[in-house]
Write a structure and sequence with these properties.
Order of helices and strands: EEHHEEEHEEHHHEHEHEEHHEEEEEEEE
Helix content: 25-40%
Strand order of the largest sheet: 7-8-9-5-10-11
Number of strands: 19
Length: about 375
């Protein structure tokens, strides 16, 4: 029983990059014309060939980590650092490329709010479905049903289709099911900044009480205030490696200082004329948060670095509903420049009650132009 709940040794994950190219076809497509190209495809269509590059993208690099029973471990780092990849490996959603992971106990994971729930099924049916997906038998799922409904404040809607339930039911049910399945290890990716203030408080209290029952929680978030409030220890991941681990306040302070000073960049970013360091959400108090709240104002902030003293940068932030429905693009009226390398912060403010309940994606685009040459081809960087 003294063994850690989670033991990770030499964990690495590389995602192969696959590109498609067409075999043969020595004809210049630009000179062929639309009709000729169509005829060529009918008579002798090119066959796509998948080419896998040897290196790929290394999301995790030789990670060693132990998480004790009853520990609430915060996992922080900038976008693309490898935080969510780590949770997906632990949840067995993806396989590691190298290394070993040992888990002692049953795992419950919530890697994306609402995953595993079907809007057309009733609330009760969704609980049974989620329980089966997390390895619970029918009897255990039935015994957990009342606890889940009570915590989610959905007792009177148990036989209603989930799609017909009040706003926020998806989120409340997802989190309630996660923490009421009596799991030994809970994996949560950005799930505490949901619902109204009372429900968020109840969620945090439930996570804080996990050590009393011996549950182990691994919690990924950009909300540094939530990390400070509920985590007993913090791991900072940078470029797929563990950069620092230890006391919550010490690690969070070091991460924030490095981020805002512009030191969180790799060699390629240090030599690039411009680079985006992070794209994050801010609450009304200008502190990073994990998710937007409809009833409260917020902001989308871009942290970026300029290394080109003779160039001027322009910044644009796009907001999408999901990944296909473009809502708007906001271009910052300020043009950024500095005689020496410097880190900047710029934010797009979102008023309260501006968005509906949904999933949104923000894109950030940074462009550099030589000062005094507005029509020159820009150098750009982008982030999501």
């Amino acid at each position: 029983m003294n063994a850690p709940a989670v033991s990770i040794r030499g964990l690495s994950k590389t995602f192969a990059i696959t590109r498609k190219r067409r075999k043969g076809g020595g004809i210049d497509q630009g000179q062929l014309g639309a009709l000729g190209h169509l005829l060529k495809q009918v008579v002798a269509p090119d066959k796509p060939e998948e080419i896998k590059e040897a290196d790929g993208v290394q999301a995790l690099r030789n990670v060693d980590l132990d998480v004790a029973r009853g520990e609430v471990l915060g996992i922080i780092g900038r976008n693309g650092a490898g935080k969510s990849t780590l949770l997906k490996v632990l949840a067995r959603v993806i396989d590691p490329s190298a290394g070993r992971v040992t888990l002692h106990g049953r795992v419950a994971s919530l890697l994306e709010l609402g995953i595993g729930f079907a809007p057309e099924l009733t609330v009760r049916e969704n609980i049974q479905l989620y329980a089966r997906l997390n390895g619970l038998g029918r009897r255990d799922a039935l015994s957990a049903e009342d606890r889940i409904l009570a915590f989610a404040q959905l007792e009177e809607f148990r036989d209603h289709p989930l799609a017909k339930c009040p706003s926020g039911a998806f989120i409340r049910l997802a989190f309630s099911a996660l923490v009421n399945m009596r799991a030994d290890i809970i994996l949560a990716d950005e799930v505490l900044a949901v619902g109204d203030s009372n429900y968020r408080h109840a969620c945090e209290e439930r996570i804080r009480s996990a050590p009393q029952s011996g549950e182990c929680v691994l919690f990924v978030s950009h909300d540094m205030n939530a990390i400070r409030r509920i985590c007993t220890r913090v791991v900072w991941i940078d470029h797929g490696r563990i950069r620092m681990t230890g006391d919550t306040e010490v690690v969070v302070a070091a991460y924030e200082n490095e981020l805002l000073s512009g030191h969180l960049s790799d060699d390629a970013e240090d030599t690039a004329p411009c680079s985006i360091l992070d794209l994050r959400l801010l609450g009304d108090d200008q502190a990073p948060i994990g998710a937007l709240q409809m009833e409260a104002p917020a902001a989308i902030e871009c942290v970026f670095r300029l290394n080109a003293p003779n160039e001027t940068a322009t910044l644009a932030i796009e907001l999408w509903r999901g990944r296909k429905a473009h809502i708007f693009t906001a271009t910052c009226p300020e043009r950024f420049h500095s005689p020496r390398p410097r880190t900047f912060r710029a934010a797009l403010k979102l008023p309260a009650d501006f968005l509906n309940e949904s999933e949104y994606t923000a894109h950030c685009r940074l462009q550099l132009r030589p000062r005094g040459e507005p029509h020159a081809t820009p150098t750009s960087a982008a982030a999501e």
